[in-house]
Amino acid sequence: MADSGRDEFIRWARDACHPLLNTGATTGTVDIEPLRVIVGNASIVGLGESWHSSAQLLTMKNELVLALVDHFGFNAIAFEGGVPASNDVDAYLRGDTENTPAAVLRKFGQPMWLNPQTVALMESLRTWNASRGAQDPIRAFGVDPAYPGAAIGSVLSYLGRVEPDYRPPYRDLLLSVEHALLAVPLDSSAKSAVWGSTAVYEALNTTEKEQFRFACTELISQLEQNRSAYSFRTSAAEFEWALRQVIVILQAHGIVSVRSRSLTEANRVRDLAFAENLVWMRDQSDSPLKIIVLAHNIHIAREPFRSAPDGPPIVSMGGYLSDWLGDEYVAIGSTVGRGRHGGDSDAGLAVVPATDAGKLASADASNDAALEEVGVGRFMLPLSGAPAWASTARTTRSHLEPQPEYALARSFDAVAYVDRITRSEPLRT
Hints:
The chain is 49% helix and 11% strand. The protein has helices spanning 4-16, 32-39, 55-72, 86-93, 101-106, 116-132, 149-162, 171-182, 193-202, 206-225, 227-233, 236-259, 263-284, 297-300, 317-325, 354-361, 367-372, 408-411, and strands at 18-19, 44-49, 76-82, 139-144, 291-296, 329-336, 378-382, 394-395, 405-406, 414-418.
């Protein structure tokens, strides 16, 4: 039996969608009129992707980032990447010549950023900054606590400067953990350094785990008790950054300490940390920030996600931001098709094994399958005023398992659709 609600949604979407015609990753020349309606007065916009490391989704997100920078005054990019990399990534955008873009992106601890599309985005933002001198540069930072290796060394280095005679408890253990964390490979076997760091924690014995947590809490105590003196000896900004690094280490500890027994609980801790770190970065800025968040759909969506088919819902970063900021937060998700309208004979969904691609291709009840029938290869669809069909949760194609389910109109302010996706070529350096 035909789904009349689905048919109504498709007819509505054909009239409401805005084709995305630009295919370049280095210009912000997409049609800004639909963005003007979607973004409104938002100060934070989440740009989601359903498939990490998809060349077409990354390219489309680059175009949207540059349009938001060029036309809407957005001046900061928050990556689903490690917080400790923030200063190096930010410095590169400001003209630092000590690192290559691949080198600074590697410090995020997420292989999904190690591709030509993200390098192209970095270079575009760096060029934009150079054209404006020191005036209101584009900033960049990570919000993920789950790759904390460099944070340990950063904090110990700071304390060595402000209090040379202070010796942190279990310093050798801290340095050993730092060394092991930084050695976690960014490859498919480890998934990423984010989850690969779980093995580092689990290699500690019970006493070492207790000592590690005690050492971190003592570092926070040492910093907080000497806030005024340390801020005077360096700067308030340097002090707050050092303190945040210890908080990030404890956030990561909270993730990896439960990861092996409960992915749900680990993701619950992680998404809350995403939101807290993002708001902290915003509040620490000397000038107002308008932030674009680049992350998976599950993190930027307003509605919860699940780590297991029958598991409890997990509040996403987008859910927290929506609660805390109201209309100042806007979520734009992404959806993918199977190559029907892209003018290319290659099959879509080429970033997953053939068995998974076949499974997804048969998911005709998904949100993506309905959007395929709009008949446009790339488009933006504002969801304000969508028919009731868009308020019921349905599967949305993704590399994740279980497949996320979204009620489009409740989860996102808009969705971008790309008809065909392929795996981005990984960087070789």
